[in-house]
Amino acid sequence: MKKRYFVLVALLAVCMTAAAGCNKNNKEADSTQAVTETPTPTPKADNVVQMEKISDADKAAIRNILGEKTSTSSDVVLTNDTGLDISEIYIREAADSSDDEWGDDLIQGSYEWKDGDRALYYYEKSDDVNYDIQVFYTDEDEANCFFRDLDFSDTTEIKLCMEDGVPYVTYYSESQKKEVSTLEDARERMGLTNDDSDDTDSSDDTDSTVGENTATPTPEQSDEDYSSGDDTSSDSGDDGDDGSGDGDEDPGYSSGRDQAESYIGKSLDTLEGAIGNANDVSYETDPETGTEIGYHEYDDFTVATTVGEDGQEIVTSVW
Predict the structure, then answer these.
(1) Cα 198 from chain centre
(2) How far apart are CA 243 and CA 277, in angstroms?
(3) What do you get for the CA distance between the two ends of the chain, in Å?
(4) Neighbours of 94 (CB within 10 A)
(5) How do residues 171-198 score in pLDDT, each as one tens digit?
(6) Considering the entire predicted model, what is its pTM?
Protein backbone atom coordinates (compact mmCIF):
# COMPACT_ATOMS: atom_id res chain seq x y z
CA MET A 1 0.00 0.00 0.00
CA LYS A 2 2.73 2.49 0.91
CA LYS A 3 4.61 1.55 -2.23
CA ARG A 4 1.57 2.31 -4.43
CA TYR A 5 1.18 5.65 -2.73
CA PHE A 6 4.71 6.67 -3.59
CA VAL A 7 4.23 5.62 -7.20
CA LEU A 8 1.13 7.84 -7.53
CA VAL A 9 2.94 10.82 -6.04
CA ALA A 10 5.82 10.38 -8.46
CA LEU A 11 3.46 10.18 -11.44
CA LEU A 12 1.67 13.34 -10.28
CA ALA A 13 4.97 15.25 -10.03
CA VAL A 14 5.98 14.18 -13.52
CA CYS A 15 2.63 15.37 -14.97
CA MET A 16 2.87 18.73 -13.24
CA THR A 17 6.42 19.25 -14.54
CA ALA A 18 5.37 18.38 -18.09
CA ALA A 19 2.39 20.73 -17.90
CA ALA A 20 4.57 23.59 -16.70
CA GLY A 21 7.01 23.01 -19.53
CA CYS A 22 4.22 23.01 -22.11
CA ASN A 23 2.78 26.22 -20.71
CA LYS A 24 6.22 27.91 -20.81
CA ASN A 25 6.78 26.80 -24.41
CA ASN A 26 3.34 28.10 -25.40
CA LYS A 27 4.06 31.53 -23.86
CA GLU A 28 7.43 31.75 -25.60
CA ALA A 29 5.78 30.84 -28.90
CA ASP A 30 3.04 33.42 -28.38
CA SER A 31 5.64 36.06 -27.52
CA THR A 32 7.69 35.22 -30.60
CA GLN A 33 4.62 35.34 -32.81
CA ALA A 34 3.54 38.71 -31.40
CA VAL A 35 6.92 40.25 -32.10
CA THR A 36 6.94 38.83 -35.61
CA GLU A 37 3.49 40.27 -36.42
CA THR A 38 4.33 43.84 -35.28
CA PRO A 39 4.25 46.01 -38.44
CA THR A 40 7.31 48.08 -39.26
CA PRO A 41 6.44 51.79 -39.53
CA THR A 42 7.02 53.34 -42.93
CA PRO A 43 9.58 56.15 -42.70
CA LYS A 44 8.48 59.57 -43.99
CA ALA A 45 10.27 60.97 -46.99
CA ASP A 46 12.65 63.77 -46.10
CA ASN A 47 11.54 65.92 -49.03
CA VAL A 48 7.89 66.09 -48.00
CA VAL A 49 7.05 69.60 -46.77
CA GLN A 50 4.00 69.90 -44.55
CA MET A 51 2.39 73.30 -45.23
CA GLU A 52 -0.59 74.42 -43.21
CA LYS A 53 -3.07 76.83 -44.73
CA ILE A 54 -4.17 79.79 -42.68
CA SER A 55 -7.21 78.70 -40.74
CA ASP A 56 -10.49 80.60 -40.66
CA ALA A 57 -9.82 81.28 -36.97
CA ASP A 58 -6.51 82.95 -37.85
CA LYS A 59 -8.22 85.05 -40.50
CA ALA A 60 -10.94 86.06 -38.06
CA ALA A 61 -8.26 87.37 -35.71
CA ILE A 62 -6.89 89.79 -38.34
CA ARG A 63 -8.14 93.32 -37.66
CA ASN A 64 -6.65 95.06 -40.72
CA ILE A 65 -9.22 94.59 -43.48
CA LEU A 66 -8.78 95.56 -47.14
CA GLY A 67 -11.64 95.44 -49.63
CA GLU A 68 -15.16 94.22 -48.92
CA LYS A 69 -16.29 90.69 -48.13
CA THR A 70 -19.16 89.42 -50.27
CA SER A 71 -20.79 86.09 -50.98
CA THR A 72 -18.57 85.67 -54.05
CA SER A 73 -15.31 87.22 -52.87
CA SER A 74 -12.02 85.39 -52.39
CA ASP A 75 -9.38 86.46 -49.91
CA VAL A 76 -5.62 86.48 -49.42
CA VAL A 77 -3.55 87.46 -46.38
CA LEU A 78 -0.97 90.19 -46.99
CA THR A 79 1.89 90.62 -44.50
CA ASN A 80 3.81 93.89 -44.28
CA ASP A 81 7.43 92.75 -44.03
CA THR A 82 8.97 95.84 -45.65
CA GLY A 83 10.45 97.26 -42.44
CA LEU A 84 8.24 100.37 -42.60
CA ASP A 85 4.68 101.28 -41.59
CA ILE A 86 2.23 101.65 -44.48
CA SER A 87 -0.41 104.38 -44.63
CA GLU A 88 -1.96 103.74 -48.06
CA ILE A 89 -2.30 100.72 -50.34
CA TYR A 90 -3.71 100.43 -53.85
CA ILE A 91 -4.42 97.13 -55.62
CA ARG A 92 -5.45 96.73 -59.23
CA GLU A 93 -5.53 94.06 -61.91
CA ALA A 94 -2.11 93.86 -63.56
CA ALA A 95 -2.02 96.09 -66.62
CA ASP A 96 0.46 97.55 -69.05
CA SER A 97 2.46 100.59 -68.01
CA SER A 98 0.20 102.95 -69.99
CA ASP A 99 -2.69 102.34 -67.58
CA ASP A 100 -2.31 104.75 -64.67
CA GLU A 101 -5.64 104.07 -62.96
CA TRP A 102 -5.23 102.64 -59.46
CA GLY A 103 -8.63 103.30 -57.91
CA ASP A 104 -9.06 104.21 -54.25
CA ASP A 105 -6.80 103.76 -51.25
CA LEU A 106 -7.98 100.59 -49.45
CA ILE A 107 -6.94 101.75 -45.96
CA GLN A 108 -8.59 105.19 -46.17
CA GLY A 109 -7.11 106.28 -42.85
CA SER A 110 -8.94 103.62 -40.85
CA TYR A 111 -5.67 102.23 -39.43
CA GLU A 112 -1.91 102.30 -39.84
CA TRP A 113 -0.54 99.07 -41.28
CA LYS A 114 2.43 98.46 -39.01
CA ASP A 115 5.54 96.60 -40.09
CA GLY A 116 5.09 92.91 -39.27
CA ASP A 117 1.27 93.07 -39.20
CA ARG A 118 -1.12 91.14 -41.41
CA ALA A 119 -4.04 92.44 -43.45
CA LEU A 120 -6.87 90.40 -44.97
CA TYR A 121 -7.72 91.44 -48.52
CA TYR A 122 -11.09 90.55 -50.07
CA TYR A 123 -11.30 90.62 -53.87
CA GLU A 124 -13.50 89.34 -56.67
CA LYS A 125 -11.58 86.49 -58.25
CA SER A 126 -11.17 86.43 -62.02
CA ASP A 127 -9.66 83.67 -64.13
CA ASP A 128 -6.08 84.20 -65.30
CA VAL A 129 -5.81 87.65 -63.71
CA ASN A 130 -2.78 88.80 -61.71
CA TYR A 131 -2.53 91.93 -59.57
CA ASP A 132 -0.28 94.93 -58.93
CA ILE A 133 0.16 96.53 -55.49
CA GLN A 134 1.32 100.07 -54.74
CA VAL A 135 2.04 101.21 -51.17
CA PHE A 136 2.78 104.57 -49.56
CA TYR A 137 4.60 104.71 -46.25
CA THR A 138 3.68 106.65 -43.14
CA ASP A 139 7.08 108.34 -43.36
CA GLU A 140 6.46 110.69 -46.29
CA ASP A 141 10.20 110.93 -46.93
CA GLU A 142 10.07 107.32 -48.09
CA ALA A 143 9.19 106.85 -51.76
CA ASN A 144 6.16 104.79 -52.74
CA CYS A 145 6.93 101.38 -54.20
CA PHE A 146 5.33 98.69 -56.34
CA PHE A 147 4.85 94.91 -56.27
CA ARG A 148 4.03 93.63 -59.74
CA ASP A 149 2.14 90.79 -61.41
CA LEU A 150 1.05 88.77 -58.35
CA ASP A 151 -1.11 85.64 -58.60
CA PHE A 152 -3.40 85.72 -55.55
CA SER A 153 -5.09 82.44 -56.52
CA ASP A 154 -1.86 80.44 -56.17
CA THR A 155 -1.38 81.07 -52.45
CA THR A 156 -3.07 81.98 -49.18
CA GLU A 157 -0.54 84.50 -47.87
CA ILE A 158 1.85 86.95 -49.54
CA LYS A 159 4.66 88.78 -47.74
CA LEU A 160 5.56 92.25 -48.99
CA CYS A 161 9.34 92.56 -48.56
CA MET A 162 12.15 95.01 -49.23
CA GLU A 163 15.86 94.28 -49.77
CA ASP A 164 18.42 96.98 -50.57
CA GLY A 165 15.65 99.20 -51.87
CA VAL A 166 14.12 96.52 -54.11
CA PRO A 167 10.44 95.69 -53.38
CA TYR A 168 9.51 92.02 -53.86
CA VAL A 169 7.25 89.34 -52.38
CA THR A 170 7.56 85.82 -51.04
CA TYR A 171 4.80 83.23 -50.86
CA TYR A 172 4.16 79.49 -50.83
CA SER A 173 3.01 78.44 -54.30
CA GLU A 174 0.21 75.90 -54.25
CA SER A 175 0.90 74.90 -57.85
CA GLN A 176 4.68 74.51 -57.45
CA LYS A 177 4.55 73.22 -53.86
CA LYS A 178 7.46 75.39 -52.77
CA GLU A 179 8.41 78.80 -51.41
CA VAL A 180 8.70 81.43 -54.15
CA SER A 181 10.51 84.80 -54.13
CA THR A 182 10.15 87.48 -56.80
CA LEU A 183 13.36 89.29 -55.80
CA GLU A 184 15.36 88.38 -58.91
CA ASP A 185 12.43 89.21 -61.21
CA ALA A 186 12.08 92.59 -59.51
CA ARG A 187 15.80 93.32 -59.86
CA GLU A 188 15.73 92.40 -63.55
CA ARG A 189 12.64 94.54 -64.17
CA MET A 190 14.36 97.51 -62.52
CA GLY A 191 17.49 97.10 -64.63
CA LEU A 192 19.69 95.77 -61.83
CA THR A 193 22.17 92.98 -62.54
CA ASN A 194 24.18 90.67 -60.33
CA ASP A 195 27.27 92.65 -61.30
CA ASP A 196 25.83 95.63 -59.42
CA SER A 197 26.24 93.80 -56.11
CA ASP A 198 29.85 92.82 -56.86
CA ASP A 199 31.28 96.31 -57.37
CA THR A 200 34.36 97.10 -55.32
CA ASP A 201 32.95 100.54 -54.44
CA SER A 202 30.30 99.47 -51.96
CA SER A 203 28.89 102.98 -51.50
CA ASP A 204 28.18 103.38 -55.22
CA ASP A 205 26.57 99.96 -55.29
CA THR A 206 24.25 100.77 -52.42
CA ASP A 207 23.22 104.08 -53.90
CA SER A 208 22.43 102.52 -57.26
CA THR A 209 20.32 99.79 -55.73
CA VAL A 210 18.32 102.12 -53.55
CA GLY A 211 17.72 104.41 -56.47
CA GLU A 212 16.06 101.65 -58.47
CA ASN A 213 13.45 101.30 -55.74
CA THR A 214 11.13 103.72 -57.50
CA ALA A 215 12.15 103.24 -61.13
CA THR A 216 8.56 102.35 -62.00
CA PRO A 217 6.34 105.22 -60.69
CA THR A 218 4.45 107.09 -63.38
CA PRO A 219 4.46 110.90 -63.52
CA GLU A 220 0.75 110.93 -62.80
CA GLN A 221 1.21 108.93 -59.62
CA SER A 222 4.00 111.08 -58.21
CA ASP A 223 2.81 114.53 -59.36
CA GLU A 224 -0.98 114.44 -59.42
CA ASP A 225 -2.88 111.52 -57.98
CA TYR A 226 -1.22 110.93 -54.61
CA SER A 227 -0.16 113.78 -52.37
CA SER A 228 1.83 111.45 -50.10
CA GLY A 229 4.08 110.19 -52.92
CA ASP A 230 7.43 111.47 -54.09
CA ASP A 231 6.10 115.03 -54.45
CA THR A 232 5.64 115.51 -50.71
CA SER A 233 9.13 114.28 -49.96
CA SER A 234 10.42 117.61 -51.21
CA ASP A 235 9.31 119.01 -47.88
CA SER A 236 12.46 117.49 -46.44
CA GLY A 237 14.47 120.10 -48.31
CA ASP A 238 14.50 123.85 -47.72
CA ASP A 239 12.04 126.30 -49.23
CA GLY A 240 14.04 126.19 -52.45
CA ASP A 241 11.34 124.41 -54.43
CA ASP A 242 10.95 127.13 -57.03
CA GLY A 243 13.29 125.27 -59.40
CA SER A 244 15.14 128.48 -60.15
CA GLY A 245 18.42 126.66 -60.49
CA ASP A 246 20.31 128.79 -58.00
CA GLY A 247 21.51 125.67 -56.17
CA ASP A 248 21.13 127.20 -52.70
CA GLU A 249 21.99 124.74 -49.93
CA ASP A 250 19.57 123.78 -47.23
CA PRO A 251 21.02 125.24 -44.01
CA GLY A 252 20.58 121.83 -42.37
CA TYR A 253 23.21 120.26 -44.66
CA SER A 254 26.97 120.85 -44.64
CA SER A 255 27.16 120.98 -48.44
CA GLY A 256 25.07 120.80 -51.60
CA ARG A 257 26.34 117.30 -52.18
CA ASP A 258 25.10 116.16 -48.76
CA GLN A 259 21.70 117.61 -49.52
CA ALA A 260 21.63 115.91 -52.92
CA GLU A 261 22.51 112.56 -51.34
CA SER A 262 19.40 112.82 -49.17
CA TYR A 263 17.34 112.51 -52.36
CA ILE A 264 18.80 109.19 -53.50
CA GLY A 265 15.86 106.93 -54.32
CA LYS A 266 13.57 109.90 -54.99
CA SER A 267 12.53 111.60 -58.22
CA LEU A 268 14.82 114.04 -60.01
CA ASP A 269 12.00 116.59 -60.03
CA THR A 270 11.98 116.51 -56.23
CA LEU A 271 15.73 117.07 -56.03
CA GLU A 272 15.65 119.92 -58.54
CA GLY A 273 12.82 121.52 -56.61
CA ALA A 274 15.06 121.61 -53.55
CA ILE A 275 18.51 122.51 -54.91
CA GLY A 276 17.87 123.77 -58.43
CA ASN A 277 18.73 122.53 -61.90
CA ALA A 278 22.14 121.20 -62.93
CA ASN A 279 24.62 123.23 -64.93
CA ASP A 280 24.98 120.50 -67.53
CA VAL A 281 23.05 117.29 -68.32
CA SER A 282 23.99 114.28 -70.46
CA TYR A 283 22.60 110.78 -70.99
CA GLU A 284 23.92 107.40 -72.06
CA THR A 285 22.48 103.88 -72.34
CA ASP A 286 23.90 100.99 -70.34
CA PRO A 287 24.90 98.42 -73.03
CA GLU A 288 24.21 95.47 -70.74
CA THR A 289 20.80 96.39 -69.33
CA GLY A 290 19.55 98.94 -71.86
CA THR A 291 18.79 101.35 -68.99
CA GLU A 292 19.12 105.05 -69.79
CA ILE A 293 21.43 106.79 -67.31
CA GLY A 294 21.51 110.56 -66.76
CA TYR A 295 24.41 112.65 -65.43
CA HIS A 296 23.51 116.02 -63.91
CA GLU A 297 26.59 118.13 -63.19
CA TYR A 298 26.44 120.78 -60.49
CA ASP A 299 29.27 123.10 -59.38
CA ASP A 300 31.12 120.60 -57.19
CA PHE A 301 29.27 117.29 -57.54
CA THR A 302 27.42 115.10 -60.06
CA VAL A 303 24.03 113.44 -59.67
CA ALA A 304 23.37 110.16 -61.53
CA THR A 305 19.86 109.05 -62.42
CA THR A 306 18.08 106.18 -64.15
CA VAL A 307 15.14 106.66 -66.49
CA GLY A 308 12.27 104.18 -66.12
CA GLU A 309 10.13 102.83 -68.94
CA ASP A 310 7.50 105.44 -68.05
CA GLY A 311 10.03 108.30 -68.31
CA GLN A 312 10.26 108.88 -64.57
CA GLU A 313 13.84 109.82 -63.61
CA ILE A 314 15.17 108.60 -60.25
CA VAL A 315 18.28 109.71 -58.38
CA THR A 316 20.62 106.74 -57.94
CA SER A 317 23.95 108.15 -56.74
CA VAL A 318 25.91 111.33 -56.05
CA TRP A 319 29.67 111.89 -56.28
Answers:
(1) 23
(2) 7
(3) 129
(4) 14
(5) 999 999 999 999 999 888 888 766 544 4
(6) 0.49
